[in-house]
Amino acid sequence: MKIAILGAGESGVGAALLAKAKGLDVFVSDMGQIKETYKAKLATAAIPFEEGRHSTERILGADELIKSPGIPEKAPIIQEAFKKEIPVISEIEFAGRYTQAKFIGITGTNGKTTTTLLTYHLLKNAGLNVGLAGNIGESLAEKVIEDKYEYYVLELSSFQLDNMYQFKAHIAVLMNITPDHLDRYGYSMEKYAASKMRIAQNMTGADFFVYNADDENIARAFQPKAFAGVAVPFSLSNAEASKVYFDGGKIRVNEKFYQGSVDTSTSSLIGKHNQYNTMAAVTVAKLMGVADAEIEKALETFQNAAHRLQPVGVAKEVTYINDSKATNVEAVWYALEGIKQPIIWIAGGVDKGNDYSTLQELAREKVKVLVCLGKDNEKLKQAFGKVVPIIAETTSIEYAVRLSRSLSTPGDVVLLSPACASFDLFNNYEHRGQRFKEAVEKIVLKK
Questions:
Q1: Is 107 annotated as a binding residue?
Q2: What is the rounded distance in angstroms from the CA atom of residue 334 to the CA atom of residue 10?
Q3: Any catalytic annotation for residue 135?
Q4: Taking each helix axis from N to C terminus, what angle separates 112-125 and 272-287, rounded to the nearest 10 degrees?
Q5: How far apart are the C-alpha atoms of 101 and 337, rounded to whole Å?
Q6: In the chain, N or C terminus with fewer CB closer than 10 Å?
Q7: Residues 64 and 19 in one domain
Q8: Res 185: pLDDT
Q9: First and final CA of the chain: distance in angstroms?
Q10: Which domain does 56 fall in, by range?
Q11: How far is residue 113's CA from residue 154's CA, in Å, rounded to a whole number?
């Protein structure tokens, strides 16, 4: 069987290594330049590859294509494959063929990374034989070569779900559906929601679909009557209609055979969005048989990923928080909602068609200064000019931090939560977050 892999990043190289290990005829093609670390992996495994071009004839001579999530279906080479009726699948779909492990799949517009990391942390600390992979930055396919885990916790993006067909999760988690990446879905929320709902495909009566019952878009997209698995809704606002809910500082789980009451008071996660994330992760842990006391102990030791409401320092009673991963309005809303102190808010970058009106009430209540960090800040200034007392703008993150320090008073929070993509000034959101952290350490913490 001939396999062509498009894209030589983490997922593509992982798929190539798995295909080679299974004795398949594999070829890797990337229109861009391949990182040296990935070239070395391919060369060591004697896998042929090309960069800077697509050899159409060789690619379309394959029996199946494995596509990087970053390649849109409108790409000419993908359209040619469709015309020739060559199956196009994702790395996750491919890897799923070669393991008997059970999958815990987690998706959502916001919160999926935190929920994935927390779920993995809870299960691992309980002693389960569990691996972590997917959109979190680790290739499932490469892990499946050794296949030493009984369970895999997978963060899944809509782009990965689009090319998954036979894949089935034992537990599927859907956090929320809000507008994002609509350019990949014909600017249709219905199509985007349908992509997210693929997380629950192929389920049987022995599988569980854990979902946010407070999310209107999920309510519209989910069809319970056509669903074969066990639905486990969680909610902050409607305990009667959900199986999992907050009661004071405790999460109550009322799913049959999986009862629980988990105290979350020792968790370091802040904000309403993290209450949702924690409910979802705790629900998975209960469905996997983890005891309440074990969950509570693990919640106390959890550290979230970088760039997600990550405290990076405190100086003169002012806290600096890196939330560079907040690249859309919904994520920023959760950040502003979760912080109770006065905020100096650093935002801006490449606008993705944002509607800032949903942030205005919170900004009026909590934000004392808005520092616009971007090349084009007009939309931010128009949205918040009559809402926030002080607005400044810059293209220097060092100046943004220095200005924030000078305008802060004890008890304030300086929050980098951009609501925008980073590509006008930075390589990606990680680069932006790292530069913010370095500026805080250099300008603030060493003073």
A1: no
A2: 30
A3: yes
A4: 40
A5: 39
A6: C
A7: yes
A8: 83
A9: 62
A10: 2-89
A11: 9
